[in-house]
Amino acid sequence: MSFQNPVFIPGPTNMPEVLRKSISMPTLDHRSPLFGEILHPALAGVKKILKSESAEIFVFPSTGTGGWETALTNTLSKGDKVLVARNGMFSHRWIDMCNRHGLDVQVVEAAWGAGIPTDEYAEILIADKGHEIKAVLATHNETATGVKSDIAAVRAAMDGANHPAMLFVDGVSSIASMDFRMDEWGVDVAIAGSQKGFMLPAGLAIIGFSPKACAAIETADLPRTFFDIRDMRAGYANNAYPYTPAVGLLNGLKLATEMLLDEGLENVFARHHRIASGIRAAIEAWGLKLCAQSPELYSDSVSAIVTPEGFNATDIVTHAADKYGVAFGVGLGEVAGKVFRIGHLGSLTDVMALSGIATAEMCMVDLGLDVKLGSGVAAAQDYYRNNAVTNTRTMAW
């Protein structure tokens, strides 16, 4: 690999130099008022990114997986029933965590490439007359398959059934890259990580709790110590953590939220859609298809590209790393060897995207796939030329 080349994995993402510098800082007393000047603006910035007026924000030194565990252990009790769809590797891993915590998991199976089957959710919730289901789990953007599910439709299914369950959403590869509306969609716990849309290294689990989720804390009996938000809340009140915080990463998070909000969230989302659309134009020019089954499911943060039958898609990723020093994402779980992934989120520009498209193209030609050299690059160039950025504030950092 080469540090000079951008990465095209769906996280960790490329870092703006200003963010990289912000996390490299002198040691400070993390129990001093100075730390509070980093902590509280970072929490307030995340709240705005989630488009919430009422959420309480918690940031743990962890990853998105720690965010999942925070959601479950602070709100549920052993034996509680949860409803979740399995439509990719990350929903599968969340199901595994639920099982390990002794929850009663009702799984709706869906194709890897399909979104959350909200019609089935609706039927199950309507049939649950005793309201045994305590939480509905939804992966907003399935990173393994490049599928974006409709969270508003999940909430509509819950409301249509007049069901009181909480709604937990994994937004790890969508939040800060794609539109996310915590309050409007009635999300009770939203989970993100520092290493994707926030453009930082891995190391922070970023979680928003609704008032309803916060109220569930006192009756939940799943074991929790490190991830107990009551301890974290008490620490925040004193400009501190219940243990040693990741000060540099929090300083980076403070700046990252400022940068995203200064760009304007709608501009951030439009930038991601635009870059993703250029990459999708390239994929079409190559004569290949996405794992996502239909356009309304297409993710604006990662594309999982299906290679021809009998071809090992992982070879593209290996070849790119070995010959060109460029990183793409491998297929995971049921799509391992069947897809390779181009991550297009975080700090990315048209020019950077074109370099990734060109590299993928060279790899496929090198490996004998029936792809015309330059076809995808030309298609993306055409899209970017005819859909030029008009907002001068976009990525003005």
Shape: globular
Helix- and strand-based class? alpha/beta
Residue-averaged pLDDT: 96
CATH class of the largest domain: Alpha Beta
Per CATH, which architecture of the largest domain? 3-Layer(aba) Sandwich
Tell me the series of helices and strands, N- to C-terminal: HHEHEHEHEEEHEEEHHHHEEHEEHH
- Proportion in β-strands: 5-15%
Radius of gyration: 21 Å
Our measurement of the CA-to-CA distance between the termini, rounded to an integer number of angstroms, reads 26 Å
Number of domains: 2
Q: What is the topology, as strand order, of the major beta sheet?
A: 1-9-8-7-4-2-3
Low-pLDDT regions: none
The tally of helices reads: 13
Annotation, overall tally of beta strands: 13
What is the CATH topology descriptor of the largest domain? Aspartate Aminotransferase, domain 2
